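Reminder: ligand-aware prediction takes two inputs, not one.
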Amino acid sequence: MSNTEQTLSIIKPDAVERNLENEIKEMFKNKGFVIVKEKKIQIEKSEAEKFYKVHETKPFYNDLCTYLSSGPIVVMILEKESAVLGNRELMGATNPTDAEEGTIRKKYGISIDKNSVHGSDSVDNAKIEIDFFFKD
Ligand code: CMP
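Here is what comes back for the chain with adenosine-3',5'-cyclic-monophosphate:
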């Protein structure tokens, strides 16, 4: 049975700033992801606060929102079989130091904050996050 899913991916400011957009997109395409929609934008801090609301009680929330709104980002809808889990595997652990070889964060991540990419953590959150950026 087919289990085609969509997930939201963000190429974060640290990666866009280093011109890694195309390399990272190639890693997705090489794993069979189709980029259904994409746009390069810069968001306001207030929008980052809404996007990361789930983390609002965390000590890193303020810095995280300042960072995500600090420069251009690329937001993408990725599609393939089991896209949510597949994307999380390809991204690697949140902290690049813990990420496995072959993952995006291992290859390009600088720190737990500047970890180059974000990806939805569940099918439900993928729908919410896709709507957040792509609802007309
Ligand atoms: P992301 O997958 O975008 O989701 C939330 C982000 O918070 C995470 O990636 C990290 O970049 C950032 N972050 C900063 N500090 C921490 C921490 N201690 N634990 C988890 N995420 C953190």
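Residues 4-133 form a domain with the Alpha-Beta Plaits fold (CATH 3.30.70.141). Residues 123-134 form the longest helix (12 residues). We will return to this case in the review session.
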